[in-house]
What does this fold into?
Amino acid sequence: MTKRRRFKQGQSLKERLMLFIEEMRKRADELPPGPARDDLLRRARQADVATHLDEWANSPALQPPK
It folds into this structure.
């Protein structure tokens, strides 16, 4: 059986997603309206939703199912 390679992340998931969102929006601003720009903005929105899901999943108010 092969060993799984593991990585220690230097930044939290939220930090990495925020940097990704910022980069996608910056790249989208440089493009004219069209499918390529729409794709970058869609990816930024998906990452934004992922940050909210991560906050929700890690919130202290979240209760395990009974």
Q: What stands out?
A: The first helix runs from residue 13 to 29.
